[in-house]
Amino acid sequence: MEDRSHNTPPQAADASAPPTRAPARLLDRVLGHVRQAGSDLVSVALGRLRDAGAPPPAPPEGTPADPPAPGKAGMLHAVAERLRGAADAYVAAKLDELSARVDEKLDQIEARIDRKVEELHRQFTELRDRELRHRLRMLKYTLVFTVLVGVLSLLYKWLSRHWIA
Amino acid sequence: MESPDLFILFRTTLFLVLTVYALVTTATAGWHVLRLLRGDQGHQRLLRTYLAYQLLSVRLEPLRGELLQLAFWLTMLAVLWWLHGVV
Q1: Are B52 and B68 part of one and the same domain?
Q2: pLDDT one digit per residue (tens) for chain A, 165 residues
Q3: Do B73 and B34 belong together in one domain?
């Protein structure tokens, strides 16, 4: 800078003295800010590296962690109670609906079982009557055969008594 | 010595064979039913109760025709038996 000021002519140096100092000061100020920012950045980084293993600073004593405001807490409590009541009512309604559906299903199953038992009883009664009728018919045929043999025996006895002898 | 009457022999043999057959068949069926029904388990008690109900609830009206025919043929058999004594 001094070289550049020495090379300039005197008239021009006198006339342009303030304009040549102002950029120099501005440049010095900018460089100073940059240096200050760099040193601040380095100090902050070193401080964070140093404080990395240390426990976090405790909150100051005498002050709660999150002091709720009294009006806000009451409003939150009221909203929570209202939500809880709505949830309880919803669950109770759903339980009633589920219970009603289960009862209806059980009634349907019971009715189906009753119909099935009644149908089985009717089928068994019909089967019993049919089997009984079949047995009686077989007994009747046996009796008819016995009577036929008896008639033959009577005829033979009568013939042997009155004709053959 | 008189020769045996073949018809009397046939009649007596038939009577004996049929009597033994009827006795054996009835005894076997009764033994099977008893073996099926005896016991103290729940389903056996239920089966006994249900069969007793079925026996007590038999209605004779649908079987009236068969029963009347049986009665007729039994009467005929009794008459023939009496006639064997008379002749």
Answers
A1: no
A2: 334 444 444 444 444 444 455 666 777 777 777 777 777 776 766 666 655 555 555 555 545 555 556 688 889 999 999 999 999 999 999 999 999 999 999 999 999 999 999 999 999 989 999 999 999 999 999 999 989 989 998 998 888 888 776
A3: no
One domain for residues B74 and B33: no
Chain B residues within an 8 Å CB radius of A137: 66
Q: What is the pTM of this model?
A: 0.54
3-state secondary structure string, chain B? CCCCCHHHHHHHHHHHHHHHHHHHHHHHHHHHHHHHHCCCCHHHHHHHHHHHHHHHCCCCCCCHHHHHHHHHHHHHHHHHHHHHHHC
- Chain B residue with minimal CA distance to A157? B87
Q: Is residue A94 part of a domain?
A: no
Q: Are the beta carbons of B69 and A140 separated by less than 8 Å?
A: yes
